[in-house]
Amino acid sequence: MHVPTHHDDRRQTDIAMTPMIDVVFQLMIFFICTASFQAAEEFLPSNLAIASGTSTPSPIEVQPELERIVVRATYVDGKTNWVVNDRSCATSAEVRQVLRAVAEIDRTLPVVLDVADAVPLGDMIDVYDLSRLAGFEKIQFAAKKK
Fold first, then answer.
1. Considering the chain, what is the average pLDDT of its residues?
2. CATH fold label, 69-141
3. Is the pTM here over 0.70, yes or no?
4. SS3 143
């Protein structure tokens, strides 16, 4: 007895992937465009009491304006001149001593590097490194408004 094999009657189970991929990309674009990359408002400080809580609102503690260390560098007659908080320093070794002395008092103070355009890049990097070695973590570069 012969068992018939019907290859012609088999149904094709191909699934069209193109429409599915299109839908996935449309959803990705939708979620990216509607996503909010800001901090949730409940984590931001406010003077308002929480609606569900019964506690009294506490005022926001305002931190006073912190002092900062300003290191200015100018380039005159082929030499870099340093000024640290209105104190003139002849060499980078003096700058290092001043930064270390201030770091022993308070390392959380921000250091602002105000470097003139003519100052060599190596001198600017040296002062940045001196600030890091002294223990300061907040080191910023001053920018001029145009």
1. 78
2. Nucleotidyltransferase; domain 5 (3.30.420)
3. no
4. coil
